[in-house]
Amino acid sequence: MTFTFRPLDPLKDAELVHGWVTHPKAAFWMMQDAKLEDVERAYMEIAADEHHHALLGLTEDGTPAFLMEWYDPAHRELVGLYEPRSGDVGMHFLVPATDTPVHGFTRSVITAVMFHLFEDPSVRRIVVEPDVRNTAVHALNEAVGFVAEREIDKPEKRALLSFCTREQFEKAVTA
């Protein structure tokens, strides 16, 4: 599957994203009780933040298919929780719940997200911090080359700090 990316428009895309982030299957996104205005506000804050970015992943026909965020872990999310290296980029992704799941779709999404981030030659390592209970995403992360380092306590959750270098990713997706 081939995807393209575009910046999320906090006002234009808020209704779509609101449906995604408040769905029961998106519990680990931690926006279950968010109102439309909360989603607009959250993504307006991200849009104004030089260290945090939100993108929509689009199918070949331009249909929004998933949400991706990337951030500078030296300035957001993981400040004080690990020692960031030059070239580190933090990442989150959300595939919306569907009544007609496509086998392998989520794996295609995370692979596309990783390729997209590694297109920037300055990116050397991708950092993720999913909830320790989110075993499905741990398996996906491992499939694309992430190696879990340790559990950390964030204000909102206990997280599994994991890293993936460009080399680990390339080895995982060409294996």
From TrEMBL:
InterPro entries per record: Acyl_CoA_acyltransferase, Acyltransferase_MbtK/IucB-like
Pfam families the record matches: Acetyltransf_8
Known pathway: Siderophore biosynthesis; mycobactin biosynthesis
Stretches assigned to the Acyltransferase MbtK/IucB-like conserved domain: 6-53
Classification via SMART domains: AlcB
GO molecular function terms noted in the UniProt entry: acyltransferase activity
Superkingdom of this protein's organism: Bacteria
Keywords per UniProt: Acyltransferase, Transferase
Purpose of the protein: Acyltransferase required for the direct transfer of medium- to long-chain fatty acyl moieties from a carrier protein (MbtL) on to the epsilon-amino group of lysine residue in the mycobactin core.
Protein name, as recorded: Lysine N-acyltransferase MbtK
Organism: Streptomyces cinerochromogenes
Lineage, uppermost ranks: Bacteria, Bacillati, Actinomycetota, Actinomycetes, Kitasatosporales
